[in-house]
Design goal:
The complex is a heterodimer. Chain A has 19 helices and 25 strands. Chain A is of the alpha+beta class. In chain A, α4 packs across α10 and α6 packs parallel to α8. Helices cover about 30% and strands about 20% of the residues of chain B. The radius of gyration of chain B is 18 Å and the shape is globular. The termini of chain B are far apart. The chains are: A alpha+beta, B alpha/beta.
Chain lengths: ~725, ~200
């Protein structure tokens, strides 16, 4: 019975709808470059109700129409309604436009198909059962290279129905989708601040928190508030973002600065309407740097997580061969050779070494993530940006080298291998060898690794750590493989007296590493602090020698307490002096590095984003060298590929400029620039072509020929 | 060295404020060849009021104003001793590109009466002035300062029937300059077709 009634009611409703008819669009008007029509979201309208009617335009390929603020040129599409008495049309709902670049100009435009919905309201006394006619006189400018103003007179017949009419079967869902995607207020907090010749717009809250900010853009409603064509520089923050805009006439041209800055903030995840008021931008809207580049031109991370893991593993493998790892590699070889005769102990060493590598990588990665979460713009290798760490490492390297030279024997000597205690000591040693290897290797992001690390640092912590884990496994793999595969192990010669010779020989790369660190320290901290560190080095060496002496005396049964005590005191003093030196660092003026090059080589100028923009505007090709004193790969590249007279000649011929961004000490501007190229470490070589095209990233290992070829291409 | 640098750095923001306060940005100097093959430069008109007008004969907005409005404005201005330079910045191959004969033919056909029509196919002058649209107007006073920049009038359409309803901002600026007054409206967003730059 109930079912019968329900069916009956449904039939009645259906009949009523059919009788009343659906909204009937007038003919589609083709004005030359655009086909236009009016379409309704619902098939009818109730008295006193409001529905959306959209202007639908199909624009021929290659041509475009304009947003409410057309940008530098053009004209917004306009609709003039002719409606029956009592009917009203509301404001046009503008979908997010696209940016159309025309040389130095930028327009805000629509391409392809665009629907612009408009709310239409019926008066309360509209007669149910009648059909009314809506007329829209639409005027628009449609441009490709040339512009053509066109217009169209459009009509729509709309039935007045009792109650809700239901969605138009064809256009209902389409218009609903357009309305859902159209920018609207989302409770975002927006603040703007004029700072000289830049205008900061900080937007925080709601959907912006944690959103993908790549390509974020502010479309202003007023054409007078910003320079449309200027780049909008994005800085992410924990709660939102800050855009650095170039202020327009109202702010810096003599106009009246507006009380409110209104427009649309568009991101990949959606677009929202914002109304910014003047004020101080909140700290939570900035500090995390630029979003990673949308397309990494070089070593791609397009493979996502799996790709990043594979690249990280490969990167770790290759890291074994990088120049900065060589001293540590030599230590590993010495340590492994010491146990080559005993498979069980070798395996233990291998495992513990792996543990040391993994633990250190994860600790460093965790530290890095924690610091970044705190808002600081740091990258991989950050630990070497502290003079204190460098000083500590230099002393450590020196002590390890002295130990290998036989000045002092900490723990047991090679001759005593075999006792239980020494196996223990060997294991601890392997752990710290692993740890030390990572600490020293970290700054030299090998090729492959750069992309993977860039990817890692933009991902949630778990994924970041997974990538670092893959890196650690790759790094430790060769050593572990040698330790575990008997075939490989057998290739190593049997232990004997030669091992002592090998060990003493391998001490020299370690002295080299210590010297290198001292040199880095000198770059960071200046001559006075360098003197401190050198004094500390001598004291530490003296302490080590005394300690060795004491151990030898004790081994032969003589009292050794005094010499060991003095040794420890001088070590402590060394650490204190080095610490003092590092804390009172007075780095040489930044300009010094720019004036340093002499002879036929290439003269570098100091990098800044403004400088790059300026040189590009002047039509000159630019090579930017992101480098650091602590990055050996960087130093090798500069010596091998960038300092020759042939390269200098090529630069002169192309009127090219060589800019150096020195990241030896922490620098948020450089960190941000690296992030824009999806990198978190140096080296990075970027060439900006003279015609202002996309920058090109060079490989991390340079040759002269490669640089010359690239700069000639950029100047062509 | 470092102190000089610091002083310069400290002074920069101040320097940026000066034109903002007075809105009297100096008109960039330029040299270009006109439709008669003569080299003209802005400096030769020092001491006179100069109007710059960006043109693209194919642009509907330019056509709207060359229905008589622009010619009338040119004549009235020149009667007052104002120098009127029409500048064609469309790059070769783009809409509105003029070589000398084409420019002369067009001027003849339209009855255009600028002091000179400058051929800027390499975009040099347009780049200096950041010309965005056709038309895009500048009024430069006797001291060489830009006192008006932007739209020609207040109704940004391509429809001739809007002309009588619009307020002509160039005529208003010229009247202010002639009377020795501060220009009441020194800027209005320019409207029209984009200038057809060579890399666009």
């Amino acid at each position: 019975m109930f079912l019968k009634r329900a069916v009956l009611a449904l039939q009645t409703l259906l009949a009523a709808t059919l009788l009343a008819g659906a909204a009937i669009a007038g003919p589609v008007v083709n004005s030359g470059h655009i086909e236009s029509e009016l379409v309704a979201q619902e098939s009818g309208i109730a008295p006193g109700g409001t529905i959306y009617v959209a202007l639908r335009q199909k624009i021929i390929p290659g041509w475009h129409t304009y947003w409410r603020n057309p940008g530098d040129a053009g004209e917004a599409t306009r609709i003039a309604w002719t409606l029956p008495q009592g009917w009203t049309a509301g404001d046009m709902v503008w979908p997010t436009p696209q940016k159309a670049k025309l040389g130095p100009l930028l327009d805000y435009a629509y391409e392809g198909e665009v629907l612009i919905p408009v709310p239409i309201s019926a008066p309360a006394d509209a007669q149910v059962g009648t059909t009314i006619s809506l007329t829209a006189d639409v005027a628009y400018l449609v441009c490709e290279q040339v512009c053509v103003p066109e217009d169209a007179k459009l009509t729509l017949l709309l039935p007045v129905v009792a109650g809700a009419a239901g969605a138009d079967p064809k256009w209902g869902p389409v218009i609903a989708d357009v309305l859902a995607k159209a920018p609207k207020p989302a409770g975002l907090k927006a603040v703007f601040k004029l700072d000289g010749q830049s205008l900061k717009l900080a937007v925080t809250g709601g959907p912006l928190k944690g959103a993908d900010m790549a390509g974020a853009y502010f479309f202003p409603y007023s054409p007078k508030v910003i320079e449309h064509a200027a780049e909008q520089v994005i800085d992410r923050g924990p709660e939102g973002l800050t855009l650095t805009l170039k202020p327009g006439y109202d702010f810096v041209g003599g106009g009246t600065p507006p009380a409110e800055l209104q427009g649309v903030i568009a991101t990949k995840g959606g677009a929202w309407e914002v109304t910014a008021t003047a004020g101080e931008p909140p700290a939570t809207a900035a500090g995390l740097g630029a979003p990673p580049a949308q397309t990494a031109p070089a070593t791609g991370t397009s493979g996502g997580l799996v790709g990043a893991l594979v690249f990280a593993f490969l990167g770790g493998l290759i890291l074994n061969l990088m120049p900065c790892v060589f001293p540590v590699l030599s230590m590993k070889a010495a340590s492994l050779a010491g146990h080559a005769h005993d498979a069980g102990k070798t395996r233990l060493q291998g495992l513990v070494f792996l543990l040391g590598v993994v633990a250190t990588f994860l600790v460093l990665a965790g530290l890095l993530l924690a610091v970044r979460a705190g808002g600081a713009a740091v990258g991989w290798g950050f630990q070497l940006q502290s003079p204190l760490v460098i000083a500590g490492l230099a002393l450590l390297m020196l002590l390890v080298a002295l130990n290998m030279s036989g000045v002092c024997e900490i723990g047991t000597s090679v001759q005593n291998v075999g006792s239980g205690a020494s196996a223990q000591g060997g294991a601890t040693g392997a752990f710290f060898t692993g740890a030390l290897a990572v600490v020293v290797a970290a700054p030299c992001t090998a090729p492959f690794m750069a992309g993977a690390l860039g990817y890692a640092l933009t991902q949630p912590a778990v994924i970041s750590l997974a990538v670092f884990l893959a890196l650690a496994l790759g790094f430790a793999a060769p050593f572990v493989a040698v330790a575990f595969i008997p075939g490989l192990l057998k290739l190593l010669p049997r232990p004997g007296a030669w091992m002592d010779v090998l060990k003493k020989g391998l001490a020299f790369p370690m002295y080299g590493a210590a010297l290198w660190l001292v040199w880095v320290f000198a770059q960071q901290s200046g001559p006075l602090s360098l003197a401190h560190l050198l004094a500390a080095g001598v004291l530490a060496a003296f302490g080590a020698w005394l300690y060795g002496l004491g151990q030898a005396r004790r081994a032969s049964g003589k009292p050794a307490l005094v010499s060991i005590l003095v040794a420890l005191v001088s070590m402590g003093l060394a650490i204190a002096i080095a610490t003092f030196g590092a804390l009172h660092a007075a780095p040489p003026a930044a300009t010094a590095s720019a004036e340093a090059p002499t002879g036929p080589g290439l003269a570098a100028e100091v990098w800044s984003p403004e400088k790059v923009a300026e040189l590009q505007a002047a039509g000159r090709p630019v090579l930017v060298d992101f480098t650091a004193a602590w990055c050996v790969t960087c130093q090798v590249n500069e010596k091998v590929a960038l300092s020759g007279s042939k390269v200098a000649d090529a630069f002169k011929a192309q009127n090219a400029v060589y800019l150096k961004a020195d990241w030896t000490n922490r620098d948020p501007v450089i960190a941000k620039a690296l992030a824009e190229f999806n990198r978190v470490g140096v080296p990075l070589y970027v060439i900006y072509p003279k015609n202002g095209g996309q920058p090109v990233i060079l490989p991390q290992l340079l040759t002269e020929g490669l640089v010359i070829e690239a700069i000639e291409k950029a100047g062509a | 060295m470092s102190i000089t640098r610091r002083l310069v750095a400290a002074g920069l923001p101040l320097a940026a404020l000066v034109p903002a306060a007075a809105h009297a940005r100096p008109a960039p100097a330029f040299t270009a060849v006109d439709a008669d093959g003569k080299t003209r430069s802005l400096s030769e008109f020092r001491g006179k009021t100069v109007v710059l007008e960006w043109v693209n004969e194919g642009c509907p907005y330019v056509k709207k104003h060359y229905s008589g409005n622009m010619q009338g404005l040119q004549q009235a201005a020149r009667n007052d001793g104002v120098v009127w330079l029409t500048i064609a910045s469309s790059a070769p191959g783009k809409q509105g590109y003029f070589d000398a004969p084409a420019a002369k033919t067009w001027m003849e056909a339209k009855g255009a009466q600028p002091t000179a029509l400058l051929l800027d196919g390499d975009n040099k002058v347009a780049t200096l002035y950041k010309a965005k649209t056709t038309p895009h107007m500048f009024v430069i006073d006797k001291t060489g300062a830009v006192v008006y920049e932007g739209a020609i009038d207040t109704i940004p359409t391509s429809k001739v029937e809007d002309l009588p309803k619009a307020k002509n901002l160039v005529a208003a600026a010229l009247a202010d300059v002639k009377a020795g007054r501060k220009v009441a409206t020194p800027f209005e967003t320019p409207y029209g077709c984009s200038v057809k730059y060579k890399d666009a």
